[in-house]
Amino acid sequence: MSAEYWRSLGELEDTAESRAFREREFQEGASEPPEGLSRRSLLQLLGASAGAAGLAACRRPEERIVPYVEAPEQVVPGVPRYYATTMPSGTSAYGLVVESHEGRPTKLEGNELHPASLGSSSARMQASVLDLYDPDRSQLVLKKGEPATWADFVAAWKERAKAHAAGGEGLAVLAAPSASPTLFRLAAAFQASYPRARFVTWTPVSDANALAGIARAAGRPLLPVYRLEKAKAILAIDADILHTDPEMVRHTRAFAAGRRVQGPGDSMSRLWAVEALLSITGANADHRLRLPARQIPGFVAALAASLRGHGLAIDAPAAPELPGVDAAWLRALAEDLLANRGASLIVAGPRQPAAVHAAVVALNAALGNLSATVDYREPVDALLPSPATFADLVKALRDGQVKTLVILGGNPVYDAPADLEFKAAAAKAEELVHVGAHVDETAALASWHVPSAHFLEAWGDARASCGTLSVVQPLIMPLYGAKSAVEVLSLLASGEDLPGHDLVQATWRPILGESADFEKRWNRVLHDGLLPDSAIPGVKLVPKPGTLAELATAAQAQGSGELEVVFQACPKLEDGAFANNAWLQELPDAITKVTWDNPLLVSPTSAAKLGLKDEDVVKLELAGRSLELPVLRVPGIADGTLVVSLGYGRTRAGRVGNGVGFDAFPLRTTAGLDLATDVKLTPAGRTHPLAQTQEHGTMEGRSIIREATLARYRQDPKFATDTLPLFSLWKEHEYKSRPQWGMVIDLNACTGCNACSVACQSENNVPVVGKDQVRRGREMAWLRVDRYFSGPPEAPAAAFQPVPCMQCENAPCEQVCPVAATVHDADGLNAMVYNRCIGTRYCSNNCPYKVRRFNFFNFTKDTPRVLKLVNNPDVTVRARGVMEKCTYCVQRLSAAKIDARLGGRELKDGDAKTACQQACPAEAIRFGDLLDLESQVAKARSNDRTYALLAELNTRPRTTYQARLRNPHPALAATPQEVKDPSHA
Amino acid sequence: MAQIFPQSANRLPLVIAVAALVLPAVAVGGVWYFFSPRFTDVGYQPVQPVPYSHKLHAGDMQIDCRYCHASVEKSPIANVPPTQACMNCHLLVSRNVESLAPIRDSLKTGTPMRWLRVHKLGEYAYFNHRAHVSSGIGCVSCHGHIEEMEIVRQVEPLSMSWCLDCHRNPTPHLRPLSEITNMAWKPARDPEARARQLAALRPVKPPVDCSGCHR
Fold it and tell me: Does the predicted interface ipTM exceed a cut of 0.90?
């Protein structure tokens, strides 16, 4: 089967621009200096600096060695230490192991023992280390904008608390959702001290709908825990379980495990997706149905009716046929779910209304999935979000009933629903205390601002989604004397200023049991990063009746009209909390490959109908409010659906996030938090440039991604194998000595989440270049994830391919370097020697994979001092004029080899792991010694699905790929092309 | 016709020819030597903030190198001792000597000492002390007779070619691990005794590829 792959709409349409773009290695303007610097002034600057250099230290620049005064015990300078900690994120938590150099955390990895991370990590987990060293972090306690101290705040609070002594009337605390036993205990203590005070938990984008739906079905809010590893048929209803879901690491691992195919005898699970926008989950689905978001509840009703028609014992009423739903598709889905009772799973996403979630509980129960593929557990120690209580709080503020408001994290002035007019309401409070990481939009209004501590520098605790307990252990003293949420809440609750460590230990004494060896058991929890066997089992659940009938009614209430707007929290920046994280801003969006922007996503058909091209700015009007933003056509979005990403357009995020993108929060009202239908779209008559990494380095239609259906693979296991007769004119080098490094990337496991790309950036000090440079093709990512569409542009299938340096045995780059700055070493690596490179860029010219990145400028010249702390000291920070590329993390390989040799043992599989391999949640990347026949990589390399990229060029790459397989339902189309949309028959 | 050039000008072509051979040779040779680490780095002897004498401590008093440079067998970097290490003795010995005032002040104020670095490789070259010391390279091989120096100076060029000379033929430079800090040790002449000295060492595989040190 030969699907024609295309990289972008420009390529598909074969526009003149796209062709011109592809033909040039380095785009126009790539080798020109930026605006404002003429050749003349450049030469003048160079001359001046040369003159100044001559007067420096006569013999040699002086360098100082600065040792400790009193060396900390156990710290050996130069040897990194590893500590387990936890990254809390809403009501989830991820176990981490953090690498720390001389007391500075530099790299995060997943904790293999922790069930939420299993040793892997997501892009956001990897990027969060950068937030610790954010130079724009709030550094001082501020009193009405003037510097103050924590002691000042404590004294002021004690004074203020007297005004609320009578039960706490007029006092309110607004907190973000969490699952921390200590925070929960302190919230209860606060409520006990101030029974009439309000404690509100809220965040702009949350799973409140899911909790409401589950509460409807189960009688009380419960937290779902999905076990994809046990599911053979998975239906994701507007649910991006593999990417934006807080549990994406665990889900991706389980999903990949359920689809791992070593040989023709293996089976695969099947993923069905129904969604309006194109998500990673939808892109990886075997069958995807694109429906406008307002029709999705109707789809679920139709599915319930179909299941009942197939004999499932549920009380689903008959549902009207939906025009966009092919009857055969729905039938196949129902059959698949029924054929896998107890091993199927239906998941609804957070944007779906509560009625859908309630119905999904009923369907899962009827299919026998409870206690098998999904568990619903009690939300122990969890502060759950409640939009209704938040609306009440804002009303109370507006009515002047709240005198003191403490905001413990969150930025409601920026992201509260626009119709609540939070800013005006909050201005009425006499005292507004804001605890936050930045002096942001909310802090601008506050009478007191307290800098909040990053999780790497504060004590805390958390429960993971399955309930497993762990402690958040700081790796460094707070950089700026910041305080953690537990410390502030403790002060509010009791009036005492206690350190976080004591507060957390006080919570854990009853948990571990007060006994003589508490300290030992406490240390064991800190060492392991979790408390074993602390998961919370699911409850026995009998769903309440009537949910499916309510769904049918709710489905009809959805609006009509041609256009709808779907609000999604940016998959990278969340709700804007990470807007100042440069790694995430520059990370290409997983589907659109856009950096540094949030365009309005629209389907190609709708765009054509509206007369819109990419980068055209439109005015989007919703319920009386408007926003101007550029348009981007994305194949796979439902027609009539406009997707807006939240979290951009910030004004007080910091130097990275300010002014980047477009703030869509003003369009978001309580009636339309996830979906709005009263939409008007008019062109604004101008354009806005977008920086996409998508069309850079296109590979000209060669056999890049090889894929087939599982059925075809079973018939012809060697469909992907290269059959080219490659021979050499001379005697090739034989690689006999161990180790010989190699890597195999399983495209069947890769979901395209980009965790590997950020992990590589973190490990190897890869610089950030900014939007303008990305537009010129100068993005520096050593490992990029390419996304290829196939099939019709309205409903394409997508495949993802991470592309690191291939470390070719017959490397084209080595052959053309005039100064031997890139050479081959005895372990099979293509080594890059920065100090020899003179910047001819011939190597990149010759590289067929275009994995070499050139430092056109000194991208690290203006790095603020605190940001330098995040650099990995084992890797050179490159200057201007040198080429850089993936090195298979040679610093890790070197350390592993030395450890093995001096430890008197041979290198074994797993001793040396590259950063990308370690981060990948799907375990798609296998790396190791190819000559170790027992190693995973050697076995993967000899697998029949394995092929080399562009093998016909005889580069003999050490990085190879395993072909992708899809598992379509036998009753539906056998090719990966999706069921055709009946409205476009 | 009058002569434009005096007769002495007849020698000019010869002078030019000789100069054209000699001057470039001198220039090349001059740059070759005077710009090489053997000239620029060998003998570098900066004056430290405190006149610490290795000759007194390591030489006369025979304190083992690793008492102060404790991480040399465990870490890629050989540390300079913290102020605490000095004060371990100097809280009792030479308690009020003027030259030790900066050390005492450092301990009192918590401000670390700022020593001047003597041995330095380019920042693009990663040298691993543990790999060398734990493999059997003595301190004296690279740092010379430190125990005879009042002020530390660099005695070896530490240039890449100097490193490669050993990497390509390490065996003559290996010594038993017990003799690493023994400045006076010499390899045994007798081949059998020499073999016995080397037998207990870990296998030595010095990288000769660029990626061994440049990353």
Answer: yes
